[in-house]
From TrEMBL:
Domain of life, per lineage: Bacteria
CDD domains (UniProt xref): PRTases_typeI
Descriptive protein name: ComF family protein
Any coiled-coil regions, as ranges: none
SUPFAM superfamilies associated with the record: PRTase-like
Database matches in InterPro entries: ComF/GntX_DNA_util-trans, PRTase-like, PRTase_dom
Similarity section: Belongs to the ComF/GntX family.
Lineage, highest ranks first: Bacteria, Pseudomonadati, Pseudomonadota, Betaproteobacteria, Neisseriales
Length: 245
């Protein structure tokens, strides 16, 4: 029975993998139900998503004068080297991410992961390893899937880099970050991740759907650097961004 189940899982992964990689497979646009091209979002709907403004911190992507680190990063530099966020967490992308995450819309992973390309149109430095932000086991059981893993899977295919979804574990549950103040967020996620193997000298890309303060990504990057990572880049689809102008 166990064997049968794991074979089914492999088969469904293979099917999804081949669909994800078939450029000729035209999909319906997630937003307008028109022709979404091979990535599942049409050009017009893609143009409706709010890009991260040029005036952002080069480290954590928070509001800052263009090219200058924000006050938080000047005070204490996060463990990740750069947080890449192509879009602001705003309508309609927030609705898409919500549907993907809580509506178990696994089919949306491919279209959403295509949005990472906006941040690095020429292709960023290829990571040695792609790692999803892990969910706590009980949260995973409740939700049924880890949205970060699905995005990381598609990201790894696009970057032609290996995915490792067993390297990191979340050892305790944490209250949702959105309800907490910035200082509480950092305390909330301290020591929450364990990296099980050494990653000496590797450049690691960590993937999540949304960044609020960046505290979760900071904590995971710190755990990876403790295990020898040479560089950690955090990638999210959207960042919560409050313009101060
Ligand atoms: Zn559309
Ligand atoms: Zn910053």
């Amino acid at each position: 029975m166990e064997n049968h189940r794991s074979r089914l899982a492999v088969l469904s992964n293979l099917t999804r993998h081949s669909l994800d990689n078939c450029a000729l497979f035209v999909q319906t646009c997630l937003l307008c139900a028109g022709d979404g091209g091979s990535d599942g979002l049409c050009t017009a709907c893609r143009a409706d998503l709010a890009p991260l403004p040029a005036a952002h911190c080069p480290i954590c992507a928070d509001t800052a004068p263009a090219g200058l680190p924000c006050p938080h990063c000047r005070r204490r530099r996060p463990a990740f080297d750069t947080l890449h966020a192509p879009f602001i967490y705003a309508w309609p992308l927030n609705a898409l991410i919500h549907a993907f995450k809580y509506g178990r819309r696994l089919d949306m992973a491919h279209a959403l992961s295509s949005l990472f390309a906006r941040e690095a149109p020429d292709g960023p430095v290829r990571p040695d390893l792609v790692v999803p932000v892990p969910l706590f086991a009980a949260r995973l059981a409740e939700r049924g899937f880890n949205q970060s893993l699905e995005l990381a899977r598609a990201f790894a295919v696009r970057m032609a880099a290996p995915l490792d979804d067993t390297l990191c574990v979340r050892v305790r549950n944490t209250p949702p970050q959105a309800r907490l103040e910035r200082a509480e967020r950092a305390r909330n996620v301290a020591d929450v991740f364990v990296v099980k193997r050494a990653v000496t000298g590797l450049a690691v890309a960590i993937i999540d759907d949304v960044a609020t303060s960046g505290a979760t990504l900071d904590a995971l990057a710190a755990a990876l650097k403790k295990q020898g990572a040479h560089r950690v880049d955090a990638w999210v689809l959207a960042r919560v961004f409050y313009s101060k102008t």
